[in-house]
Amino acid sequence: MGLFITLEEPTAPMTQEALSAGYYKPSGIVGAISCPKVQIVTIEELLNGKKIQYPMHDDVTFRRASKVEEEEDENLEIDFPK
Question: The whole model's pTM is what?
Fold first, then answer.
């Protein structure tokens, strides 16, 4: 998958080339959607809230590592030469 971000509106040949790459749909992911393999968006579109299409379903939850409790360190003493 690829994303091309541009300042200017894409030309017709650019759009045609991106569409010719086809669509991607991952196998084995329940609720996954197909999306273009190459997407072209302008910076203006991104600033106006356009979302990038990606093959994950909106309700997918990723596993997270368990939180590690930090132990309070006692002040370490450093012996400086006199």
Answer: 0.60
